[in-house]
Amino acid sequence: MANAFLYLTLIAYFGATALWLAFFLAQQEAFCRAGAWVMGAGLICHTLALLQQTWVLGYLPVATFGETLLVLDWALVAVFLFLYWRFPIKVLGALAAPLAALMVSFALILPGETGAVSPLLKSFWLTIHIGLALLGYGALTLAFLGGIFYLVQERQLKGKKFGFFYRRLPSLEQLDTLNYWCLSLGFPLLTGGIIFGSLYAQHTLGRFWSWDPKEILTLIAWLIYAVLLHERLTVGWRGRRAAWLAIWGFVALFITFVGANLWITGYHSFASFLKAP
Amino acid sequence: MNLLLLGVNHQTAPVALREKLAALIPDAAMAYERLQELPELPEVLLYATCNRVEVLCATEDPEAAQARLRDFFAGNPEVSREALEEALYVHRDLEAVQHLFRVASSLDSLVVGEPQVLGQVKEAYRAATKSRATGPILNRLLHKTFSVAKRVRTETGIGDQAVSVGFAAVALGKKIFGDLAGKTAVLVGAGEMGELALEHLKGQGAGRLIVANRTLERGLELARRFGGEAVSLDELEDQLLAADVLISSTGAGGYLLTRDQVKAVMRRRRQRPLFLIDIAVPRDLDPAINELDNVYLYNIDDLKEVVDRNIEERRREAARAERLVAQEAVKFMGWLETLAVYPTIIALKEKAQGICQAELKKTLAQLGPLSDEQRRALEVLTQAITTKMLHDPIIFLKRNHHPKKPHQELDLVRRLFNLDPDRRGNYREKDKEEG
Question: Do B280 and B407 fall into the same domain?
């Protein structure tokens, strides 16, 4: 599954990581600008790599954990760069870039696919289901990273201990706005992903919802985000609580993504993709 | 060419003397007119800031220039020579460059890191260029100074830290709100420190300013001064609904606001962040308020601690800045010293050119008629030989310049190529050779 574009992507993401960490330490504007460009170049390579694989395989490569990780990583970087362009919180790159680089590394280490692939995967509708869900994951992952920054910065301000991070992290207001943006971007995407999946399940399996472990976990994560969004809009929840909910929501998503695929069996697990239904 | 800097600052001279010296340059153009008449001062720059009066010049004759500048400073009849001599410091060459860099980078200021001094030096330089008082050396030095000052500001944290309570409050506010523009600030009670803090907030673009005071009269007066509104203390809780920043400095005995009061208000505010600054002693605001989400309470001790730590931090950063300044000053002196080799290089080239032309003329006369092409080929040939011959000596001059004995190499080259035929030393050498 490895190809030249993927290695270029890997190099670019690690390069962006170095630049962004340099920005974080030295606080020189030029580093983060360069970091964004290198990351953008990485995203282009990443896109080409995915397109090439899709072309060769005939479907979006999501049959194994490694392949899916690669698509998720693409979604994460795409959403990050979109947010960076619209709403620049520069230090976020210092977490997002290393995460992106590590995800590509894992994707390259993890074993590739063997055997025949379930024809279910080749459907256009399933591609939409997965694409939307993973873009949602990307945005919500960024909400999680922003939440971590928020909690660190809030702790400094409340505790009146101004350390290394105080100067380097942006204001609470900016971090809270980031939380809101990621949520209002990620939640509809995730919802859309669930709806498409459900429609497709009705079409192919004859039922909208099967209480598959992955579906249950996703529902939990979805409920956490729904509560957060609702409370934000009605009673003005924000700050620490919003950051914590974004973190808990991400934990649920993480278990969904990693756990449900590797440890729990169900028709969403990768093991089931590689044999005929 | 030498650099010379004379001046007094807050460490050497009392304000009375500094004032009188600064009075010498009320109108820079006039002062420059006087100084430019002096042949010893081909390039000169004057600058006075709140804490210093200094003159910088580039001169071939530093001793004479120094005497002239001392006379200039003593020009104000109210200044006694003795007081002046005691306060005046003189820096030459490397020290002068370093001093100027330190001044512009605000390392020599009363409050280290204050940003105004660079602007004042820039302003003075602009006045000097207007009077055409500076030349190539000072121009280059001043441009270098500005870039060094900028580097100090961006590469060290010398100016990052707030060193007054008002600035500390503003810096904290920025970390909470991102931007203070358009925020609503409430001042509770009058008092110098509270007013200063409000002033800082206003300077940051705070939108609405509200003054709540026990006596409405004083409140009204303050509100007028800041262009805000005055309210009575009883309305405080309602005002808290609109407020983003609240500064409290009343002389009240008990707590003005309790945790429960603020908690109730926060719900009504839909949890918009609230920044409370309690600079009253005894405290006006219940310390337990800080436990509430989205409320940030700082009392005077907290702020002072921030300020103390920042001053300490500035001191550390200043040490880094000093290193940078010292390095840059050495670099600049390196450039200044290379200036000395240029007359020699030019003389060398001229001499070679002269020989070349003379020999060419002779040869062309002997060769008889030549085509233009042939003639050009000969010219190119001689030109190429001299250029290549001189290449290494010139590189040697530029590179092997001994920083401690700048004239040794120069002398050697000048004698080697007999660039100063009038000098006695050269004749003697020649005589020996011939004899």
Answer: no
| Distance in angstroms (rounded) separating the CA atoms of residues B333 and B322 | 17
- As annotated, the active-site residues of B are 50
Residue of A nearest to B270 (CA): A236
Domains with residue ranges and CATH for chain A:
1-114 (1.20.120), 116-277 (no CATH)
Domain-embedded: residue B328: no
Q: What is the pLDDT of residues B274-288, one digit of tens each?
A: 999 888 878 888 889
Q: What is the DSSP string of B388-409?
A: HHHHHHHHHHHHS--SSSHHHH
| Residue of A59, A50, A182, A77 whose CA lies nearest to A129 | A59
Q: What's the pLDDT tens digit per position in B308-331?
A: 888 888 888 888 889 999 999 888
8 Å CB contact of A171 and B271: no
In a domain, B369, yes or no: yes
Buried b or exposed e, range A6-20, using 16+ CB within 10 angstroms: bebbbbbbbbbbbbb
Q: Do B270 and A170 touch (CB under 8 A)?
A: no
Is B319 domain-assigned?
no
Q: Is the pTM of this model over 0.95?
A: no
- Cross-chain Cβ contact A166/B273 below 8 Å: no
Question: Which ipTM did the prediction report?
Answer: 0.81
Same domain, B66 and B203: no
**A171, A178, A179, A230: which to substitute to probe chain B, counting the most B Cβ within 10 Å?**
A171
CA distance linking residue B107 with residue B315, whole number of Å: 10
Using an 8 Å CB-CB cutoff, list chain A residues near B270: 235-236
3-state secondary structure of B269: coil
Do B233 and B209 lie in a common domain? yes
List, for residues A175-233, the tens digit of each pLDDT value: 998 889 899 999 999 999 999 888 888 888 788 877 777 888 889 999 999 999 998 88
The residue to which tokens 């990768």 are assigned: A270
Residues B352 and B241 in one domain: no
Contact B176 A166 (CB under 8 A): no
Q: Coil, strand or helix: which one is B369?
A: coil
pLDDT at residue A251, as a whole number: 92
Q: Which residues of B touch A170 (CB under 8 A)?
A: 178
The gap from C-alpha A15 to its chain's centroid, in whole angstroms, comes to 20
Residues of A in contact with B160 (CB under 8 A): 167
Are the CB atoms for B174 and B180 separated by under 8 Å? Answer: yes
Distance CA A16, CA B397 (A): 45
pLDDT of residue A271: 61
pLDDT at B434: 43
Angle between helices B136-155 and B94-104 (to 10 degrees): 50
Question: For tokens 């498409």, what's the residue?
Answer: A196
Q: Give the residue numbers spanning the domain of B151.
A: 2-155
The total of structural domains in chain B comes to 3
Same domain, B175 and B269: yes
pLDDT tens digit sequence for B27-72: 667 778 788 888 888 888 888 877 888 888 888 888 888 888 888 8
Does residue B249 sit in the same domain as residue B366?
A: no
**Chain A residues within 8 Å of chain B (Cβ atoms):** 28, 153, 157-158, 160, 162, 166-167, 170-174, 235-241
DSSP string, B108-173: SSSSTT-SHHHHHHHHHHHHHHHTT---HHHHHHHHHHHHHHHHHHHHS-TTTS--SHHHHHHHHH
**Distances in Å between the alpha carbon of B19 and those of B1, B25, B48?**
31, 10, 9
Residues B348 and B407 in one domain: yes
Instruction: Specify whether B226 is located in the same domain as B287.
Output: yes
What percent of chain B is predicted at pLDDT more than 90?
A: 8
Residue with tokens 């270098």: B144
Which B positions 216-255 lie with beta carbon below 8 A of chain A? none
Chain-chain contact of A172 with B273 (C-beta, under 8 angstroms): yes
Report if residue B316 sits inside a domain. Answer: no
